[in-house]
TrEMBL record:
Signal peptide: none annotated. Residues 1-13 have a biased composition (Basic and acidic residues). This is Uncharacterized protein. The keyword Transmembrane helix applies.
Length: 266
């Protein structure tokens, strides 16, 4: 009787204890839970990084396109102003009215000519960059994006140098000839009986105003190029975040590959 009771107690005791199969199921469920939690965590992190990268990418493209459009328009304005100024100068340089000459005999126009050439180069560069940016937005090609970036860097360096030369030549020529006034800008801005003598033939005030706006646009071009440099620096920062996103994507793929058996079971 006692043996039967002991046997019954042992059987019931063994019944209450978990078997090895139950322990395996619990471990498996725990692994599934950890896998799901880790997977969700990585997916949320990837989602945040993707949205951040997409936002940075959009801002960089909008800023680049906006600045290039501004540079293109400003360069076109300068091109038109300088071309008109040189056309007036060349058409009236030998004009006389009594004792007055429309322009001095030793007048030089190289600052305006340099401005015209720089504006033409700037228009061409900005047009090429705008076409490349449009192609990148349309086709989303990394190769075209690289080409556009290279042209942007070239335009940035060339723009800073060339427009600095333009502003320097225009300003220094005016300072140098403050009393002689043999450059187009200084000569056209001077008032006196000479201007009155050619009032019906040459609008010196308009030529002077065009030269003023040419100088202002040149300064604006330098400012825009400096802003373009800031956009390029932000683009480099975006490349860092993009690299971080690529690393997280690779980690996610590696994690899913390492837990293939759990993925298949799910």
């Amino acid at each position: 009787m006692e043996d039967a009771d002991n046997r019954e107690f042992k059987d019931s005791d063994g019944f209450l204890q978990p078997t090895y199969g139950d322990l395996d199921d619990q471990r498996q469920q725990a692994n599934y839970g950890h896998f799901d939690y880790r997977k969700q965590q990585m997916e949320d992190n990837l989602r945040v990084l993707s949205e951040t990268d997409r936002r940075h990418k959009s801002r960089v493209r909008i800023a680049r396109a906006g600045l290039r459009i501004f540079n293109f328009m400003c360069s076109t304005v300068v091109l038109g102003l300088t071309a008109t100024t040189l056309a007036v100068f060349n058409a009236t340089r030998d004009l006389t009215a009594g004792p007055f000459h429309a322009w001095p005999a030793d007048a030089y126009s190289w600052p305006t000519t340099v401005t015209l050439v720089v504006a033409a180069v700037s228009v061409a560069l900005n047009l090429v960059i705008l076409v490349l940016l449009a192609a990148v937005s349309w086709r989303s090609s990394s190769r075209l994006d690289t080409v556009a970036t290279v042209f942007s860097v070239i335009s940035f360096v060339a723009g800073i140098i060339l427009w600095s030369v333009v502003t320097g030549s225009l300003k220094l020529s005016g300072l140098k000839d403050e009393f002689a006034g043999t450059d187009i800008w200084t000569w056209s801005c001077r008032e006196g009986p000479r201007r009155d003598a050619f009032e019906g033939e040459i609008d010196f005030q308009r030529v002077c105003l065009q030269s003023d706006w040419t100088f202002i646009c040149a300064i604006l071009q330098i400012s825009a190029e400096l802003l373009s440099g800031g956009v390029m620096l932000f683009g480099l920062y975006r490349r860092v975040t993009k690299k971080k996103l690529s690393t997280e994507e690779q980690n996610y793929r590696d994690y899913m590959r390492a837990n293939t058996h759990i993925v298949k079971d799910n």
